[in-house]
Design a protein that fits this description.
alpha/beta; Rossmann fold; seven-stranded parallel β-sheet; two-stranded parallel sheet; 13 strands; binds NADP nicotinamide-adenine-dinucleotide phosphate; binds ligand G4F
Length: about 325
C-alpha cells in the first residue's frame, strides 16, 4: 500500500500543484471539494482526465469546512497518512467585508479537522497553511521567531489556526506543522490577487482588449515566490522525523509598482500610461512590507527558491499571452 493524502482546497492554486506533486510520487490523493452551482475544478481537470492517473489514484469528495461531521466521517473512512489543510477563505480584502465568515472557515475550519483527528485517534501527519499575513505590521525580515501582529480578519483567523495547530501538537502529541508561507503566485493564481490581475491586464492591454488597469496600494511590498516550489516545501515538512514550523520565502521584496513595471515591460508598454489609482482596492489596513527569512527551511528541509519576482512576472505574463482562456490549468 502506498501513501494516502487528503488535500483540503485541492481546487485552489496550491492544491492543484500539490496534487500533481503527490501523484508524481505515487501517492493516492483524496481531495475535498465544496459544492458549487458551477464547476470549480478547472485547475485539476487535467489530473482527473489524465490517462496516467486512470488507475484511480485521485478521488474527489464533496465537503465543506463548515461541516465538522462530514470532515470527521471522511477522515474515518479515508484514513489518510498525510493531511494537507489548504482550504480557506484566502482573500484578505474580502475578509474585511466578511469577517465572521472568514473566522468560521479560515479559523474554525482548522479546529474541526484537528478535533476530528484527536477524537478518532487517526495517526495522520497534518499540515496547516499558515501565512506571512500573520506578521502584519511586524517589521521585516520576518522569521519563525517574529511575533505576529495581524492586521486583517484573515490574518487573525490564520493566527488562531496557527496556535490551534501548535496546541494540538503540544497538548495531544499530534504530528501537526505550520508552513508559514509568504506570497506565492503562478499562472493558476486567482484572478483577484494582485499579481494575476496585473499580468492579465498587461496582456489584455497589449492585445487591445482592455485600456486601463485600476489598482489600489502600489507601495505595498511583498516577498513573491513561485507556487510549484512552495508545495514542494509543504511535502518536505511532513517527511521530517519531528513536527516543526517553517517560514517559506524568497528573502526578496518588491513593491506592487515594481511588479506592474515587470509585467508591462514584458509586453513592451509604458505602465504609467495605463495604470490608474482606484480607492476601492484600498484596505482598511494593509501590510506594508513582507520579507521572509527562510534560513531554517534551507537548513532543515534543504529547500531553496529559484524563481524570484522579475522572472515570476515574466512567467505569468507569458502564460496570459500564450493562451488567456486556458491559463488556469497550466
Ligand atoms: P486559493 O486558490 O484561494 O484556494 C482556496 C481553496 O479553499 C479552494 O480550493 C477553495 O474552494 C477552498 N475553500 C474555500 N472555502 C472553503 C470551504 N468553506 N470549504 C471547503 N473548501 C473551501 O488559495 P491558495 O493560494 O491555493 O492558498 C492555499 C492556502 O494557503 C490557503 O489556506 C491560503 O490562505 C494559504 N496561503 C496562501 C498563500 C499564497 O500566497 N497563495 C500564502 C500563505 C498562505 P473553491 O475552489 O470552491 O473556491
Ligand atoms: O495579491 P494580494 O491580494 O495578496 P495579499 O493580501 O498579500 O494576500 C495573499 O498573500 C498572503 C500571504 O502573505 C496569503 F496568506 C493570502 O491568502 C493571499 O494569498 O495583495 C497584495 C498587495 C496588497 O498590499 C494589496 O493592498 O497588493 C495590494 N494591491 C494593490 N492594488 C492590490 C490591488 N491587491 C489586490 N488584490 N487587488 C488590487 O487591485
Amino acid at each position: 500500500m502506498g501513501t494516502t493524502a487528503l488535500i483540503t482546497g485541492i481546487t485552489g492554486q496550491d492544491g492543484s500543484y500539490l496534487a500533481e506533486l503527490l501523484l508524481s510520487k505515487g501517492y493516492t490523493v483524496h481531495g475535498l471539494v465544496r459544492r458549487s452551482s458551477s464547476q470549480s475544478t478547472p485547475r485539476i481537470d487535467h489530473l482527473v482526465q489524465d490517462p496516467h492517473v486512470e488507475d484511480g489514484r485521485l478521488f474527489l469528495h464533496s465537503g465543506d469546512l463548515n461541516d465538522g461531521s462530514r470532515l470527521a466521517m471522511l477522515l474515518e473512512r479515508l484514513q489518510p497518512d498525510e493531511i494537507y489543510h489548504l482550504a480557506a477563505q484566502s482573500d484578505v480584502r474580502v475578509s474585511f467585508d466578511e469577517p465572521e465568515y472568514t473566522g468560521a472557515v479560515t479559523g474554525l475550519g482548522t479546529t474541526r479537522i484537528l478535533e476530528a483527528m484527536r477524537i478518532s485517534g487517526l495517526p495522520a501527519r497534518f499540515y496547516q497553511a499558515s501565512s506571512s499575513e500573520m506578521f502584519g505590521a511586524a517589521p521585516p525580515p520576518q522569521s519563525e521567531e517574529t511575533p505576529f501582529r495581524p492586521s486583517s480578519p484573515y490574518a487573525a483567523a490564520k493566527v488562531y489556526s496557527y496556535w490551534m495547530t501548535r496546541n494540538y501538537r503540544e497538548a495531544y502529541g499530534l504530528y501537526a506543522v505550520n508552513g508559514i508561507m509568504f506570497n506565492h503566485e503562478s499562472p493558476r493564481r486567482g484572478e483577484a490577487f494582485v499579481t494575476r490581475k496585473i499580468a492579465r491586464a498587461a496582456s489584455r492591454i497589449a492585445r487591445g482588449e482592455q485600456a486601463i488597469l485600476r489598482l489600489g496600494n502600489l507601495e505595498a511590498r511583498r516577498d513573491w515566490g513561485y507556487a510549484p516550489e512552495y508545495v514542494e516545501a509543504m511535502w518536505r515538512m511532513l517527511q521530517r522525523a519531528k513536527p516543526d514550523d517553517y517560514v517559506v520565502a524568497t528573502g526578496t521584496s518588491y513593491s506592487v509598482r515594481d511588479f506592474v513595471s515587470f509585467c508591462f515591460e514584458r509586453v513592451g508598454l509604458d505602465w504609467e500610461r495605463h495604470v490608474r489609482f482606484d480607492e476601492q482596492y484600498m484596505r482598511p489596513s494593509d501590510v506594508p512590507d513582507l520579507v521572509g527569512d527562510a534560513s531554517k527551511a534551507k537548513l532543515e528541509l534543504a529547500w531553496e527558491p529559484t524563481v524570484f519576482a522579475p522572472e515570476l512576472a515574466q512567467i505569468m505574463t507569458d502564460a496570459e499571452l500564450e493562451d488567456p482562456a486556458a491559463v488556469t490549468v497550466r
